[in-house]
Amino acid sequence: MDPLNLLTKQSIFWKLKIHFPFLPIKNETRFLKMKLQLQQTQVRFWILLAILLNFGSVGAISYYDTGEMLTVMAEKGLNLRDKPSAKGKKLIQIPMGGRVKVISKKETKPETIDGIKGFWIEVNYQTWKGYVFDGFLSRLPSPPRNCKSLKDYLTKSYGSSKLETIAMGDYEGRSAYRYNQSILYMTEGGDSFDLYFPEISKEELYLIGKLCNEFGGETFELDGSNAFNVPSKQSQEMMIRIYQDENGVTILRKEL
């Protein structure tokens, strides 16, 4: 297998170690190309890390940029205000599922609303322009009205899935439904399941889970292990846990 191709693998099921064997002189050019690509990969990594440290580490939503369209994930809607503050004058209420365009991300002090940390950002909504709290925004599609479960959300938002058996990693041997964007819904039958959801925050998965009737509550609160725990709304004897694995991927687990 070509070592260069391995660099593009982005999955928890690959714990990659690349070893460079002795190369004959005739392959020296190829070795130099491989070395250059590794250096470029390191540069991209440090640039991404700097971005996350500056913009994505404190707020609830996964990283986004100016010009992006974001979706309101608050069940009762999100207030658009004339100033970047909860004390600003309310201009209009954006309904759940409403889409806003990010105009600017001026630096403001982080605030916490219902346990969710975020910032006030300037956005456009239809013909309106103002400020919203970004802790209740997401790049993901909003759940449909009367969403029944997370499985319901995945099916209606990401389309059909492919049933497969995981071949490597922490979930080796488990059955999983694979959706677009490498989302995995793992279950062995019954009500228990694990949801592996890359590139989103714990808070985003919390908001989606609430909107899809998996659990209730009004406040997002982490325990000593930096995880969110709550009884299942559908099966009171079961618990739901939202956390991030060692690779920074957000997991939701429902079990007894």
Care to describe what's here?
20% of the residues lie in helices and 29% in strands. It has 256 residues and is an alpha+beta fold. The protein has three domains: 36 residues; 70 residues, SH3 type barrels, CATH 2.30.30.40; 106 residues, no CATH class. It has a seven-stranded antiparallel β-sheet, covered by helices on one side. Strands 8-7-4-1-9 form a five-stranded antiparallel β-sheet, with no helix packed on it. A hairpin with a 7-residue loop joins strand 14 and strand 15. It is elongated and about 55 Å long. The N terminus is likely disordered. Keywords: Membrane, Transmembrane, Transmembrane helix. This is SH3 domain-containing protein.
Task: Set down the secondary structure blueprint.
Layout: H1 3-6, H2 28-56, E1 69-72, E2 78-81, E3 90-94, E4 99-104, E5 111-113, E6 116-118, E7 120-125, E8 128-133, E9 137-138, H3 150-158, E10 162-165, E11 175-179, E12 183-186, E13 193-197, H4 202-211, E14 228-231, E15 239-244, E16 250-255
Antiparallel strand pairs: 1-4, 1-9, 2-3, 4-7, 5-6, 7-8, 10-11, 11-12, 12-13, 13-16, 14-15, 15-16
Q: Summarize this, please?
A:
This protein is of the alpha+beta class. It has helices at 3-6, 28-56, 150-158, 202-211; strands spanning 69-72, 78-81, 90-94, 99-104, 111-113, 116-118, 120-125, 128-133, 137-138, 162-165, 175-179, 183-186, 193-197, 228-231, 239-244, 250-255.
Overall shape: it is: elongated
Low-confidence segments, given as residue ranges, are 1-27, 43-57
The total number of structural domains is: 3
Largest sheet: 7 strands, antiparallel
Gyration radius from CA atoms, angstroms: 21 Å
Report the span from N to C terminus: 42 Å
